[in-house]
Amino acid sequence: MLTLLRQRRSIRKFTEKKIEAEKVDQLCEAILRAPTSRNFQPCEFVFVDEPGLLQKLATAKAHGTAFLQSATLAIVIAADPQKSDVWVEDCSIAAFTVQLAAEELGLKSCWAQLRLRPHKGEASASEYVRKLVDLPDGFEAPMVIGIGYPDEEKAGHSRESLPDVKIHRNSYRAN
């Protein structure tokens, strides 16, 4: 797993190559295996590969979702907040689980925050995406993950670039 973390980078440019059905199936399995608090499983996942819908997802926010227009797959991560008080955390765990699975499969990804972000006018990005993929009323769509074959190369962050000062042993003030 550390190897995947060392090489993983957010990629925002993807080739047009479609992701093989077997790999999509593996991404489905991976995201369903993500842990949830008390096993309440509040998350739902909408896998989007229709080009027109990907183009619309790319407009969910003024900044930060345009990369979805070149992705060949997007996963809208959604939840029913009535099922769990920690639905945001559960969605986040699912998002990163599928990003690591994508990395292992030779794919790249990027996360786009939707929760608490505006779309246009009075609509939120989450509400825009909720309506776009036909989620039930009351559901939230806090994030979307773009996935595909990379059309840009980025090396992983070097060990030396990591902020070791953020690690504390036994107490925050003990350093």
From TrEMBL:
Tell me its cofactors. FMN
Which is an annotated Pfam family here?
Nitroreductase
Nitroreductase domain ranges (all copies)? 5-60, 63-149
The UniProt GO MF terms for this protein read: oxidoreductase activity
* InterPro entries for the chain: Nitroreductase, Nitroreductase-like
Q: Which UniProt keywords apply?
A: Flavoprotein, FMN, Oxidoreductase
What is stated as this protein's family in its record?
A: Belongs to the nitroreductase family.
Name of the featured protein: Nitroreductase
